[in-house]
Amino acid sequence: MSELKKDIRALSREELREFFVSQGDKAFRGNQVYEWLWQKSAHDFESMTNLSKETREALDAHFVINHIKVDSMQRSSDGTIKNAVRLHDGLVVESVLIPTKTRTTACISSQVGCSLDCKFCATARLKRMRNLNPDEIYDQVVAIDKESRLYHNRPLSNIVFMGMGEPLMNYKNVLKSIEMITSDDGLGMSPKRITLSTSGVPKMIKKMADDEVKFHLAVSLHSAIDEVRTSIMPFNTTFPLKDLKESLEYWYEKTKRRITYEYVVWKGINDTQKDIDALVRFCKYVPCKVNIIEYNPIDDGDYEQASAESLNNYINSLERHRIVVNVRRSRGKDIDAACGQLANKN
Ligand code: SAH
To answer: Any idea what the CATH number is for the domain that residue 142 is in?
Structure first.
């Protein structure tokens, strides 16, 4: 039966108001319900206590609330928490809570599986099954916020779209979810605390710039040499570095916001001076900083973290050219919650 009913959170506030008018009721009921659905994250119509029983039954007859369910929660020895999140159709995605001394960051999924084919990423082994809806993305944030308050005594402070999927291949829904996360109708978070991480889809980076989005952009670069990048991220043949560069220049021109490059250094792949020089050149195109991420091995061991010496060569060269560089230690490795490890082992 429920398949015939509509997901009520696909409706805008205006559409909800119209629904009530069509039922011979007052438009402002739409506002009340909207508030229950987003701000208060109601899981069912039953709990909407300022509505009459008849109104709640009418809603129940027409709509469903496709709320996510946190199927299982794993806690790492470092405080990281990984949620396996079940969607209304039974599919599962993962999201991660990453605590540091001063912040709690939610790492959120945007798709079930991924259509890209990065050789070093566990999620890439899963086929892309479908895009997540805006409410499914929003619910992951709400769940992590709850856990942050419960286990770390503070609200969620930051969000990164670095979980499963390529957010720019589900742009419309990701944008809608961010609208609700940042709106006073929703969680009222500042867009400055949100980072969207992409493998680099040039057309969509330009679209984001045109849409004047206010969140931060991170690009998974990993190499600034086309042949090398293609060998680890095969879609680079479709979106080569020249196009990526051009889209990033466009982004900066429009937003004046610095870009973060995510970069893993692997032994025998991108650990030579030639690789470093190429990265330094790439970093000159637009204001940026580089986050060197520790490699999290996935099962088959084709890739290996480069030596500390190679990492130091990178850091020294970048710093010599006055490029900001951070080294990011992995979190939650013991529960397969680190970057690139999300693959529904359960
Ligand atoms: N599709 C988006 C977001 C998901 S991946 C993107 O590509 O940016 C999030 C980050 O984790 C990316 O920078 C990605 O390159 C990195 N990553 C993937 N697999 C990894 C692994 N095994 N170890 C470390 N980082 C990894």
So the answer is: 3.20.20.70
